[in-house]
Amino acid sequence: MPITAFSKQWGRELDVEQWLRLHGYAAQGDAELAGVPNALRALASTDIECSCCGAAGAILVGSGRGRATDRAVTQTHFRFRGPDGSNPHDPLCDYFDEKRVSGGDYLTNFASDRSALTPAIRELVCRGIQGGLFSLVIVADIRDFPPKF
Ligand SMILES: [Zn+2]
Fold first, then answer.
1. Separation of CA 6 and ligand 1 centre (Å)
2. d(CA 58, CA 79)
3. Structural domain harbouring 113
4. Are residues 98 and 112 located together in one domain of the fold?
5. Are residues 25 and 96 both part of a single domain?
6. Ligand 1 geometric centre to CA of 134 (Å)
7. Rounded Cα distance, 72 and 32, in Å
């Protein structure tokens, strides 16, 4: 259940609300996404890819509410399904086992310097930009790395 995924059309990582807004649908007041037109849902299944493995078949999932409190207990997110209902993720993908990832333990907080990965990723990205391998603004360049000659 990734919170964000890659949009081929927009060339960047987006969450459900951002992707809907870019297509002219304001999700405020529709936490369950009940009013999203079927045409947009169909477009999501072909435009949105899993950021880890590139799987297609995205389904827009609205936020869930707790029975007792009526507060949002899950955030809007993407789920991926093949045309036959199968799991389209690569077995090595972080999102392959949905039961394992539902707790959010798979998330790495790159905004925090407390993660050991943050300085390493920052160093790699800075070297890639400095070396002209990709630009800071074009996330798609990073997805396409290594460059094809
Ligand atoms: Zn995946």
1. 11
2. 6
3. 108-149
4. no
5. yes
6. 23
7. 10
Distance from residue 112's CA to the centre of ligand 1 (Å): 24
**Is the same domain home to 77 and 133?**
no
| Per-residue model confidence as pLDDT tens digits over 3-19 | 889 999 998 899 999 99
CA 99 / ligand 1 centre spacing (Å): 14
Q: 49 CA to middle of ligand 1, Å?
A: 8
> What percent of the chain is modeled with pLDDT above 90?
38
Q: How many CB atoms lie within 10 A of CB 65?
A: 14
d(CA 47, CA 54): 11
Q: What proportion of the chain, given as a percentage, has pLDDT over 70?
A: 74
Cα 121 to ligand 1 centroid, rounded to whole Å: 20
| Mean pLDDT across 62-76 | 73
